[in-house]
Amino acid sequence: MRPLIVVNFKTYERATGKRALSLARKIERIAKQTKTKWIVCPQHADLFIAKHLSIPVFAQHVDACEPGRNTGFVTPLSLKLAGVRGSLLNHSEHRLDFKLIKATVELMRKYKLASVVCANSAREAKRIAEEVHPDFVALEPPELIGTGISVSQAKPEIVEKSANAVKKYGVRFLCGAGISSGEDVRRAAELGADGVLVASAIANSSSPVKIIKNFAKGALLA
Length: 222
Description:
single chain
């Protein structure tokens, strides 16, 4: 099975507003041409792009709350009605208490939303898989995020260990932090990952098409 490529747009200006839709359409076009699997994760204000795309759109965060008096929170129902198919959770830039992670994933499951829960260590990845059972666990050592040095190259033993531990519980495993090329995608798959979580290499690129094609090539070679 070809590895999945999840693109976190973060809050980069090059992936905001109309530019978020433009970037997502570039990814969609190359995904169709190469028959590779992609998910895009724009800011909440840009989730409107889900109505214009055939590839899945995930949020960057969602809260464990039902409709009601919850000003400033994002409900799973609101994502569902917007055409969003899932959400990231517990990213290193938006960490959550473990009990809250579990409650949020349970509520997402109720609304049939897929969950990608980030972990900053092999130990946390295993615990999340064992006790929370999300759809995906994404390992992202925080010290490598945004460095251009991929975890699959810098710490391959951690990737392999985490992949084995997570998949033991029937949870799919993603490799993140410093992912910047198609070779990183191929290497992550070789170490047992079901895909990668990437951000700045694509979302903040001045030449995204070239990078997207390179990632697709890596997925095809995996």
